Amino acid sequence: MTLALKSSHTAQRLETRQSAPPVNGLPLSLSNVEKRFGALSVLEKFSLDVPAGRFLAVVGRSGGGKSTLMRLIAGLDKPTSGTVAIGGETVEGLNPDVRLLFQEARLVPWQRVGENVGIARGPDWQETARATLRDVGLEGRENDWPSVLSGGQKQRVALARALVSQPRILLLDEPFGALDALTRIEMHRLLETLWTARGFTTVLITHDVAEAVALADRVVVLREGAVALDIDIDLDRPRRELADPRAVDLQRRILEAV
Amino acid sequence: MAEASLAGSKNDTSNVTRKSPVSDTASGAGGVLWQRLAPWALPIAILILWEIASRSGLVTARLIPAPTSVAAAFWRLLLDGSLLYHTLASTQRAVIGLLIGGGVGFVLGVVNGLWRPAETFLDSTIQMVRNVPHLALIPLVILWFGIGETAKIFLVSVGVFFPIYMNTFYGVRTIDPQVVEMAEVYGLNRRAMILRIILPGALPSILVGLRYALGFMWLTLIVAETISATNGIGYMTMNAREFLQTDVVLLGIIVYALLGKVADLATRAIERRVLSWHPAYQGQEKGTP
Ligand SMILES: Nc1ncnc2c1ncn2[C@@H]1O[C@H](COP(=O)(O)OP(=O)(O)OP(=O)(O)O)[C@@H](O)[C@H]1O
Ligand SMILES: [Mg+2]
Fold it and tell me: What ranges does the record give for the region Disordered, renumbered to this chain (chain A) (predicted)?
């Protein structure tokens, strides 16, 4: 209860601090969501509200059901019981306002980078793909094959592909997990910039508590199918200070809950 | 033959593979020349020995004609036009059979790969029929179609059907489900999914099927033409056998080998073109601008 009050308070503060951010995101709400695979219960009475335009990080152990949670939000799977709602409407299937970055980049190997970004072949897709690739720092790479890209570049392409359709909710399922530390920091900055500019609601799943504290304005720990900790990250942006004592303290508290 | 040339092409794709654990004693410019010529040394030596053996009467020229008399036969048949005539007759059968059998195999492979009910209905039957060596059908085929063109085209079609079907089916089935799921998330319709995701993804496997099919194609044709034909390379060699023209028989065998090689090179060229996205072909793409 106190946590919920506190988080809405932070949301207001964030909005006043950033110079007129585009409120483009959609609110996300899960109530009493339960998900079972046969006898295995992955999520139990899971409830979570994410206001529009917020950046939420979900931390949890491997196999704890984080990807499952993402798939429910994206409409790739149906909950066993309970509801997932986006913008007030119950999720029944895939939603073009929601885009998902998987743990793997999942590029189509036989399509060039530009064709991958414009996979939905919307109007002027080539031009849009080129522009979006520029936004993610891959200007002029549209004619390369995916196989020549590095891991970080592949995830940038996947990010561009997600951004092309102007999503209002962006789900990120450990997209930076396989990257080296430096590339990872680069991707964090890129994501933060894009999020600030475009204002989509973001849910980032990660193993990395430091990553969660560096990027999110709220962190949720998922343990044994339920929310074990829900904590606001009330640090100024941009968060370049790695050794900020407040950040270190937050990381410690999250790690204890995981 | 195919294996040997495959290994060869692998070696010249990248200089990484040249650093093999096998030591290269020759080096420098002379080494390069040696590497170019070395593969030809043994065949040429064999040809020379063979020629000598044949001329000196060490082997019966009637059974094993000297390379020069095979070359002479080649020249003779080229000039009187019969070599071209028989080669074209064989090639025509091969191509028609490949188009029919390969086309049906491809369509059934795609349909069964995409649609479970079709697979349940058809696949076990196809697998059962596959175990029948198609050349065993020859007596039956002659009864059905006589000894005309239809019989030979039918046999070739059956021969190429299975490798194309199996590999197309396998290729469609083994598409990365994660990529398919991603494409679904991005709202691709059925048509776009098949044309842009599934068929290109199955293509490497389909081309493997095509290579096997080409092998079966020539094999079937050789047998079919030697049994019943009035033209074609198979007929040419059988006819020559009756007149003890061993040089022509040998020439026919060489022509078959060359046709097989040409078909193989053609598929390889197709692979290089359509699989340029594949990491295995990227070295070659850079090598040939
Ligand atoms: N389709 C499925 N069928 C059966 N079990 C599944 C399925 N999907 C996930 N599970 C199970 O659900 C549990 C949670 O999986 P999930 O992929 O959500 O974990 P995760 O938190 O994303 O783990 P990681 O951090 O390693 O990616 C695992 O035990 C997994 O085996
Ligand atoms: Mg996961």
Answer: 1-25
Q: Is 0.90 surpassed by the pTM of this model?
A: no
Per-residue pLDDT of chain A (258 residues; tens, 9 = 90+): 334 444 444 344 333 334 445 668 999 999 999 999 999 999 998 999 999 999 999 999 999 999 999 999 999 999 999 999 999 999 998 999 999 999 899 999 999 999 999 999 988 999 999 999 998 999 999 999 999 999 899 999 999 999 998 999 999 999 988 888 888 888 899 999 999 999 999 999 998 898 999 899 999 999 998 999 999 988 887 776 667 778 888 888 888 888
Contact A15, A86 (CB under 8 A): no
For residue B183, list chain A residues with Cβ-Cβ distance below 8 A.
108, 119
Complex prediction ipTM: 0.82
Residue in A94, A104, A110 closest to B277 by CB = A110
B188 at A interface, C-beta within 8 A? yes
Q: Using CB atoms within 10 A of its CB, is residue B7 exposed (0-12), middle (13-18) or buried (19+)?
A: exposed
CA distance B235 to B253: 12
Ligand 1 contacts CB of residue A64 (under 6 A): yes
Asked if B1 reaches chain A (Cβ–Cβ under 8 Å), the answer is no
Q: Are B205 and B196 in contact (CB under 8 A)?
A: no
Q: Does B187 touch chain A (CB under 8 A)?
A: yes
Residue of A66, A100, A101, A223 best suited for mutating to test ligand 1, as the one with most atoms within 8 Å of CB: A66
Ligand 1 nearest atom to the CA of residue A69, by list position:
18
- Can you give the residue ranges of every domain in chain A? 3-97+167-257
- Rounded to the nearest 10°, the torsion over CA A14, A18, A20, A24 is -60
Interchain CB distance below 8 Å, B282 and A109: no
Buried b (16+ CB within 10 A) or exposed e, A76-91: bbebeebebbbbeeeb
* In a domain? residue B134: yes
All residues of chain B having their beta carbon less than 8 Å from the beta carbon of residue A121 are 192
Is residue B91 included in any domain, yes or no? Answer: yes
Q: Which residue's alpha carbon is at the smallest distance from atom 22 of ligand 1?
A: A67
Q: What CATH number is given to the structural domain containing B227?
A: 1.10.3720.10
Residue A200 DSSP SS3: coil
Answer whether residue B22 is part of any domain: no
**Structure tokens that stand for B81 in this block:** 């036009």
Q: Cite the DSSP H helix spans in chain B.
A: 2-13, 28-55, 67-79, 82-114, 116-130, 138-145, 149-173, 177-185, 190-192, 199-227, 233-242, 246-274, 279-287
Is-cis flag, bond preceding B200, omega within 30? no
- Angle CA B212–B271–B159, to nearest 5: 20
